[in-house]
Amino acid sequence: MEKTEKKSGFSFSALFSDFLAWLKVFFPKFGVATKTTFKRMGFAFYILFHPFDGFFDLKNDPKRRSVSAGVMWLVVYAVVDLVRFQSLGYLFADRGAQLDLNVPVRMITALLPFILWAVANWCFSSLMDGDGKLSDVFMVTAFATLPMTICNLIQIPLSHFFTAAEASIFTFIGSLGMVWAYLYIFLAMIIVHQYSVAKGLGTTVLTIVGMAVIAFVAILVFFLLQQVTSFFMEIGTEVIFRLNE
Amino acid sequence: MKQKFIKALIVTVLALSLVVGMVTTSFALPINNVSNSYFYDVNGNDASAPLSFTVDRVLKVSDFTDMALTAKFSPTDLHVHNGYLYILDSVNRCVFVLDEEYQLVTQIRLLVGDVPDLAIVQAAPEEGEEGEEGGGSSGASSGSGNKLEFNNPQGIFVVDGKEDADGDGKLDPIVYVSDTDNQRIVACDLTGKVYNVYQSIKVSVLGDNYVFNPTRLVIDNTGDIQVICAGINRGIMQITSDGEFRSFFGAPDVLISAWERIWRNFATEEQLAQMVTYTPTEYSSLTIDDRGFIYPTIAALDEAAVSALRSLSVSPTYAPVKKLSADGTDMLRRKGLSSPMGDLIWAPSREVYPKIVDIAVESNSGRYTILDQQTGRFFTYDADGNLLYLGGGSGTSQGTFQLAAAIEINGDYVYVSDTKAKTVTVFRATDYVHAINEAAQASANGYWEASIPLWQEVLSYNSNMFIANIGLGKAEMRLAMALIDDQRDANGMNALDHYEKAIVYFDRANEKVNYSVAYTALRGNELEKYFGLIFGAIGVLVVGLIVLSFVRKHLKKKKMKPVHRDEDRDAPKINRAKKGDVA
After folding, report:
1. Residue of chain A with shortest Cα separation from B503
2. pTM, whole model, 2 decimals?
3. Between A96, A164, A219, which is nearest B513 by CB?
4. Are B46 and B33 in contact (CB under 8 A)?
5. Which of A180, B32, B328, B363 would be a feasible disulfide site paired with A147, CB 3.0-4.6 Å?
6. Is the pLDDT of residue B58 over 70?
């Protein structure tokens, strides 16, 4: 008897509906915003074959522009990357790495290059008369990952059907997606900042250097923080030892 | 101002995300203190395994000699021939010959017969020429030169002779001893009667002042001596049975890192003089199989090789074990988790790496055992380079070694000599290892059907033994290949059933190459079955798409026309609207 009472006292569905009600109070436009985000994500498929018009419209047309759609595309990319990693056919999968999977680490390492690129590129473009804002660079970079997402998705069923002899086709599809996406990231950057190709190439080199610098600083900060925390921890243990004496 | 703040914020966020993403890297401990019943599983992790070897007995010098000999004993090399164990003792300067019961048959201490004077070459160049003449230089080499005794012998090899003088139905053996400090190789029989002495070998490429210090040696099928010489890094020296130098072969590659190569271009003469000179490493030991392949080993690894092997490189360039054909090319198969080198997981210290000091080969199945002096362990590999089992260890207890020197295998027995503990340890294989040997041999000789129960027995001992799964998979695949079309074998299985089984075994062993072969056969069958359906579907799809595009074009044209007219006349538009309403 008691057990059933406890169960009826706590139910997930009730909690979820409470959560929805709470969302509605604080974010009255939440549903609408989500709907428009999903609608605007679809523009990435137009960009797939019309990059020049597409990226220009994405930035300048207020009816197309959506940073949240960009975030969603990055999330989709990370999820597809994760699913691909875990569900590839046996011949193409890395068994040992699959067993050692760490979901947050895998997703962060998948996304980190794009986020770093957007940040570093914005840092340099603001020095080099680029027109784009940070949100612009971030958004177009996110939309440009779509080819990679698609090719990764195509690889999953193929990997279950291919033998080692057809491995070259498999890797070709993967590298096709990668080259396509990287090319679009470059194009998007040029279009967003209104650069010439030469200036774009120069900025690309600078951006890559900038990415390395940011990563270095981040690691430095991490280690310094570690030192500081360990310092205070040591003081704490010392104090505890003294008090216990 | 605001932008700066945002930038600082971003850097902090990135740093925090790194904190989240940081994984604590744990260093796997070197397996030094764990018991020796372990093995490496399919992912290269150490996994426990049944005990591989038990110590049958530990031979000390007092076991088979009188105490007139001191307790000194330095078994530098071992050899097994016709069941007899030959122990070369460099301190007592003799060869002990033991029978199957480890009782002393004889010992070779003094040479008899026509022994030429020692031809000890002095290191100084002007004396070299005199020395090579051979005449009376034994007097010059103060004290050490008794031509009837060995002096610090380092290598032994035994072959069948041509006659049977003692009439026991076996040909009398000829014992080849590398008499290292006497700078000669002696061939004699069990009584010490000398057949031949190889000294003053003339090698034109080395000049006059080289010192012939033979160590480990083997005799190939043609009677040529293949010998490693201390201080000579041109590979293995080949000497004909007549005592003529033939050639060097199989010199180890010189390894220089790319960074070193670049650095050397900018270094001055003085700096270059101070740098380490790069020369090929010397071989530490060698052995030969029935087919004449020579297996040399390298004990002294340089930095590039150490880092490559630590990361489990299978490149032949860095391999400490080779299998040389007659022309010196490396034929060793390295299909295992690593190049055959001993433990997969090493101690973190850079100075600690496997020192492979000896090797023994079992010709019938092609498996070979290498001895690592660093850990005192011996590792047995099959002909493909898969680690089968291991034994030994470092320490002072029974079955472990302080300074392992030589190894020899004889069926299920393994002999390992220890020059520091002054022992020769006799290991006997357990049932587990016996089962592996049987199964591996059946597979190597093509008895596929017979190998299946043998491998299954191995799996019943140790389910981590993925080599057994590879063996089973290969056997199933061979059985499948032997069947034609829908033919069924005695168990009522057709080829596809065998492939299905093989694929499961290969999956367990993570053997992708063979998995792919078996899978190709299965997939081909599936494709054949559904060929009509698949291509029918594709055909329908293509035709459908073409029709659809035609229809769409047509509709578009129809639509376009009214739109154009729209601007001029109204009638068609009304017409269209009506149609829409009806629908």
Report:
1. A90
2. 0.73
3. A164
4. no
5. A180
6. yes
The token pair at B103 is: 């009782």
Contact status, residue B17 vs residue B354, Cβ threshold 8 Å? no
Measure the CA–CA gap between B567 and B45, rounded to whole angstroms: 79
CA distance linking residue B130 with residue B209, whole number of Å: 11
Confidence of residue B128 (pLDDT cuts 50, 70, 90): very low
B155-to-A10, A24, B35 alpha-carbon distances in Å: 81, 88, 32
Domain spans, chain A: 43-213
CA dihedral A52, A56, A57, A62 (to 10 degrees): 170
Would you say B389 and B39 are in contact if contact means Cβ atoms under 8 Å apart?
yes
- Is pLDDT above 80 for A184? yes
CA distance B406 to B424: 9
The whole-angstrom separation of Cα A122 and Cα A116 is: 10
pLDDT-based confidence at residue B69 (cuts at 50, 70, 90): low
B523 contacts A218? CB cut-off 8 A? no
pLDDT number for residue A203: 93
Quote the CA–CA distance of B206 and B213 in Å, as a whole number.
Answer: 13
Residues 86-115 of A with CB under 8 A from B: 90-91, 95-96, 99, 102, 104-105, 108-109, 112, 115
CA distance A105 to chain B (A): 5
Mutation site for B-interface testing, chosen from A74, A114, A119, A121 by largest number of B Cβ within 10 Å: A119
How much is the average pLDDT of B505-521?
90
Q: What is the pLDDT, as a whole number, of residue A242?
A: 92
Residues on chain B bordering chain A, Cβ-to-Cβ distance under 8 angstroms? 3, 6-7, 10-12, 14-15, 17-23, 42-44, 507, 510, 512-513, 515-516, 519-520, 523
Look at residues B185, B164, B193 and name the one whose alpha carbon lies nearest to residue B238.
B185
CA atoms of B205 and B203, how far apart (whole Å): 6
**CA angle, B391 then B393 then B395, to 5°:** 155
CA angle (B302 as vertex; B301, B307 as ends), nearest 5: 95
Cα separation values, B401 from B36, B88, B389, B405, Å: 13, 18, 18, 9
Least CB-CB distance to A163: which of B7, B21, B520?
A: B520
ipTM score over 0.90, yes or no: no
> Residue B94: is it exposed, middle or buried by C-beta count within 10 angstroms (0-12/13-18/19+)?
buried
Tokens of A28: 């009255």
Using CA atoms, how far residue A224 sits from A227, A231, B10, B276, in Å, is 5, 10, 17, 39
- Which residue of A108, A115, A161 is in closest CB contact with B21? A108
Task: Give the residue with greater pLDDT, A83 vs B211.
Answer: A83
- Written as six digits, the tokens of B561 are 């026309």
pLDDT digits (tens, 9 = 90+) for B132-188: 444 444 344 444 567 888 888 999 999 988 777 766 777 888 999 999 888 899 999
Yes or no, beta carbons of B14 and A99 under 8 Å apart: no
Q: What is the DSSP letter of B107?
A: E
Lowest mean pLDDT among A3-12, A133-142, B77-86, B175-184: A3-12
